[in-house]
Amino acid sequence: MSLSLHLLFLVLGVILPAFLFFNARKSGKGKPIYWSPRLKVRMYYGNGVLLLGLSVVVLIFWYFNGRPLTDLGLGWGRTPYEPVAILVIFAFLFLYAVDLFAEIGSRARQQDTREKFRELGFLPSNGMQYLHFLFLCACAGIGEEIVYRGFMITYLQEVLEQHSWGIAATLMIPAVSFGLAHIYQGGHAVAKIVAMALLFGFFFYRTGSLWPLILLHTAIDAVGGLLSWYLEGQEE
């Protein structure tokens, strides 16, 4: 593993999440942001381009180190996929459905979820905003999977001995890094995000493919935006 890839992992896996974590804590003590419709749309495209940009940086570094992009999961991997990997995806879908019901299963839960979304502020509240939000969903699905699963897990697989503790660290470090990057959503959300990242990481570890994860990640974010739009519509 080259020095450039070591430095890239340090920046994306340690420095960036630490910066986002401390910045979120600092912002939480200040005046809340007023998310006007225009500001929301600007954030969707700005953050989307940033996430894609980070993944492009990874691809460029990887390419100029003479590494095939399939090593990052940009292929169908080791097919047919192991039953345990497929089972993990179905387990995730089941847990996601349970969590979704916990958020909207009753009027009281819907109100709690609506208030939580409003605290975040940037989620779409109508159809036009949602269409713009889908760009961010696609960029997050592609960018975050390449960075946090494709690059970080592959990097740690090669740097750490793949015995019990090495495998655990290979899956846990990117998951925690991914969770800290979403600290602005609150501690409870971060715990769920880390759990999701562990399951996604396990799938990638066993299959070597990101494509199913990119599609699933994009769909999850899109459902979250759709839920926000739906709940805001219930208030009208």
Automatic annotation (TrEMBL):
Q: Which stretches make up the CAAX prenyl protease 2/Lysostaphin resistance protein A-like domain?
A: 129-223
Q: Which Pfam families match?
A: Rce1-like
The identity of this protein, by name, is Membrane protease YdiL (CAAX protease family)
Give the UniProt record's GO annotations in the biological process aspect. CAAX-box protein maturation; proteolysis
Q: Which GO terms describe its molecular function?
A: endopeptidase activity
What organism does the UniProt record list as the source? Neolewinella aquimaris
Recorded hits in InterPro entries, A to Z, give: Rce1/LyrA-like_dom (IPR003675)
Record key words, sorted:
Hydrolase, Membrane, Protease, Transmembrane, Transmembrane helix
**Transmembrane parts of this sequence:** 6-24, 44-64, 84-102, 123-143, 163-182
